[in-house]
Design goal:
Layout (H helix, E strand, L loop, with lengths): L32 H10 L7 H6 L1 H21 L8 E4 L9 E5 L2 E11 L7 E4 L8 E9 L4 E9 L9 E2 L5 E4 L6 E4 L1 H8 L7
Parallel strand pairs: 3-5
Antiparallel strand pairs: 1-2, 2-3, 4-8, 5-6, 6-9, 7-8
Amino acid sequence: MKYSASPFRGLKIDQHNDFSGINPRINDVNTPPFLEAYLIVGRRKTMPDPNFIYQNSRFFENLLEHRFLFDLRRQLVLDSTPRLVNVLKSEVDAYGFDLVLSLADRSLHVQMKTRSGSPPPNAYELSEALWALPNACAIWMLYDPSKLEPTSYYLLGLPMPPMGGFRQSERVGFRKVKMQQANHPRLSLESLSALLFPRDFDR
């Protein structure tokens, strides 16, 4: 058989297709290594059972927070003028923010939220302490639950809308805020990065 530049070009292979008399399967000694690699890469990965996610919600929140920080810092360091963001994390969830992001003389207090699928109809509780902080904001990451891939971001803040525009929560010291009330909705990572750290703020 003659191959073009790529041995995979034009081929449609799965566990049931024949290839020169071979029925390629993963972990089958009769499957050529390059076909097995193709099958492994092409296999669709799915999330665990929703109950597992719920029972380990803190794990997934931390995982997605790390993903956000990686993507944001990569975006800025690969800019035409590389910029380095320092990250500080609050040890106690009692002051209205989760993260402090600092670049040059600009520091942002960030409350981080994650949401799978689409914005929910219900409101989130944000601490009133967030409104008292300099350069405060809340960021929601929307992600695809089947791949754990971010799809868009919602930003409340920069500047923060007046606190009086949000209903008080039954929980003392908190306000009810819906994602749909974000003053910067449906952002790409690039757009979010430009709002958090504009290119000309430190010049």
